[in-house]
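Recap from last week: sequence in, structure out.
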Amino acid sequence: MPKVIKSTRKVLPKAVNVVYEDRTSVIQVYQRDSSSTIQHAIYTAFPHLCGNFKVFHSRDKELELGYYHITGKGTVYVKRINPDADSKAPNRKGLTHKERIEDIIKAWGLGSTSEVFPVVMAPAATARIQERRPSTTKTTIWAFLYPAQWSKSFVHELHRLSQKTAGGHKEAIEMLRGVIAARCSKGKNAFVTEVTASDVTKAVRARNDELAQLAKEASETAMFADPALAAALDDIAEQPAKQEGAVSFFNLSFRPAPEKEE
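Predicted structure tokens:
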């Protein structure tokens, strides 16, 4: 039987020139790369790219995201799909996807989008399902979604949360941790460790409840902090309950009507 000799030749990627708007970048594509892997590489090369896109040859011929389709073509061009349709979410302020993300960074005082979520809860390209019996030898590498790939509903809710917790990024993350822990304890998507749009919505509701309670307490405190009202209450407290047969009630005296003579 002939001996089979395994090839030790290292598989090298091919460089592909990619153009989006007025920017050019080079991505490395391996033969084994899936379409999602190539898509992720393009999003990485162009962080400002939002929404879905297609890849075209210089002759405006659409190309599939595959090794044999985009390599050897010279330069390929990225074009967004319906940019006007998906650039704005149903928000009364009419903010674009990019503008909301910029607002989130500003509200929480962060340096970049990479600081929004800790790795353990950051949205991934595929659902990160925690194994019931985690392997001690296998390491899973997750492909995380860039903010440009986050869904409209997710960014919409996250924007709401950031505006309600301005300057409190740490507190907002702890709130989300609590929501995720509660979800997992109930068995609903118990092994999905990443944050979802539903989780953010629940955190927004919890924050609304907190703000409502704070507003109530502040209103009560303000009422008694008013100098004029406080002085009036002190004056009332110093008055005796009865004064020479008169009935005293909140600083107003009511004398009983004289009895009619028979």
